[in-house]
Write a structure and sequence with these properties.
This protein is α+β, with helices and mostly antiparallel strands. It has one domain. It has four helices and 13 strands. Bound molecules: calcium ion (CA) (3 copies). The site of one calcium ion (CA) has 6 residues, from loops.
């Protein structure tokens, strides 16, 4: 520890290799993020049709076409509603309830659970809704945040006017291998109309309806449609990040930087690209 304090950079390398036995060195981690920035694409400013156009190009039509039978959620498609993240729906700086349309509202929550600011994340390759502040415009998880151990994530709450079923959440910027063999991960929690928790599950490339190796969008960092395992229609869900690898991994760069801004610890972070669901 003394050596670490005197030589932060060397100490970090030793520290990370010692505790994490990680395949990702800090250098690789940073270059990964840098690569994301360099390769960043702005497909279009008004991206309400982002996903569909990309899907059309690649003929990945099994999960996001408006009119095709969905391979995983069959039955009738008549009442299926699909929404794609767009900056156009944001009002009042993303503060308070945001109307996504079709009876769906969104709300952002900060690391400490207080009301946050919903933003449209365009920092890297996959664009979607995230939460302002912390590390990125994505939904960020931290072990250490502003000098305190919090083990908590920013969250987005998705609220349905009518009970929703057959929910598929498409996440973006979720690295399949970043930081851990299982990569960046998150979780969802579903609630009934009285805010009782009725189900929960995980987010990650492993959970993709297309399989871990298939990205929904070409040149994506990590866009995956994930079907929620629900036994009953629900009135709201919250989505949040977890530590790398379902919480099994260790954060990166915790000690490499001054973390007082809350900006430097690298852990799981992702955004909300779209959702599809059915109503009763
Ligand atoms: Ca954030
Ligand atoms: Ca990350
Ligand atoms: Ca990420």
């Amino acid at each position: 520890m003394k050596k670490f304090l005197l030589a932060p950079f060397l100490g970090t390398l030793l520290f990370l290799s010692f505790i994490a036995c990680s395949e990702d060195t800090p250098t690789e981690e940073m270059s990964t993020e840098s690569d994301e920035e360099v390769v960043e694409e702005t497909n279009s400013e008004d991206t309400s049709d982002d996903q569909n156009s990309d899907s059309d190009e690649t003929n990945n039509d099994d999960s996001n076409n408006d009119d095709s039978e969905d391979t995983d959620t069959d039955e009738t498609n008549a009442s299926t509603i699909e929404l794609t993240a767009s900056p156009n729906i944001l009002t009042n700086n993303g503060e308070g309830l945001q109307d996504w349309g079709n009876g769906v509202s969104l709300r952002a929550l900060k690391i400490d659970g207080s009301a946050g600011q919903l933003v449209y994340d365009t920092e890297f390759r996959d664009e979607g809704f995230g939460v302002a502040g912390a590390r990125w415009d994505q939904i960020d998880y931290y072990v250490m945040y502003q000098g305190q151990e919090v083990n908590a994530s920013e969250k987005i709450e998705i609220i349905f006017e009518d009970p929703a079923s057959d929910i598929v959440v498409t996440v973006g910027m979720m690295g399949a291998n970043e930081g851990h063999p299982d990569g960046e991960t998150g979780k969802w929690t579903a609630f009934d109309q009285n805010r009782n928790e009725v189900a929960q599950g995980e987010f990650g490339a492993n959970e993709s309806t297309l399989g871990k190796e298939v990205k929904l969008v070409d040149n994506s960092y990590g866009t995956y449609p994930i079907a929620l395992d629900l036994s009953t229609p629900v009135y709201s869900i919250t989505i949040e990040a977890t530590g790398f690898g379902y919480g099994e991994g260790s954060p990166k760069n915790v000690n490499s930087y001054n973390n007082e801004s809350g900006n430097k610890e690298n852990n799981s972070d992702f955004n909300l690209v779209g959702i599809s669901f059915k109503t009763e």
